[in-house]
Amino acid sequence: MEISELLSPEGVISNLKVSGKKQALQELAAKAAQLTELPERAIFDILLERERLGTTGVGGGIAIPHGKLPSLERLHGVFARLDHPVDFDAIDEQPVDLFFLLLAPESAGADHLKALARVSRLLRDKLVCDKLRGSDSSDALYALLTESATSRAA
């Protein structure tokens, strides 16, 4: 599964200004609502519910909030780079500045896990994250995120 199957250019937010975890999730839910035409509140509630199970702040300044919604027909992603990192209760207790929101249909079992693994692999690459942090244009961020793995390996 490629990132371009999850993320559209409209799903990338550069220079997002938020003051904390809840506001970050609200802004991500608002963008996801525009892309999916689902209610923002439903998306936000799913994200909060998932955070109650344990943080999606995976360390290294990265969070991958995710959830499943019964009314979705396919996987959707939203990427945001924050202007200033925020406390997100990450596992390494470091603030977060790179977010990749992943929403999946209720029935997406293995596809949801494959997408999470793909996003996680991409964002574990320190070079990719450094480039993401150094870009402030949505187009540049999208290009970095959707570059094929083979071109990064070259």
Which features does this protein show?
154 residues, alpha/beta, Mannitol-specific EII, Chain A, six-stranded mixed sheet, 6 helices, 44% helix, 23% strand
Structure description:
The protein is built from six helices and six strands; from the N terminus they run E-H-H-E-E-E-E-E-H-H-H-H. It starts with 11 loop residues before the first strand and ends with a helix. The mean pLDDT is 93. The longest helix is centred in the first third of the chain and has 16 residues. It has a single domain, classed as Mannitol-specific EII, Chain A (3-Layer(aba) Sandwich), CATH 3.40.930.10. It is an alpha/beta fold and 154 residues long. Strands 1, 2, 3, 4, 5 and 6 form a six-stranded mixed β-sheet that branches. It is globular and about 35 Å long.
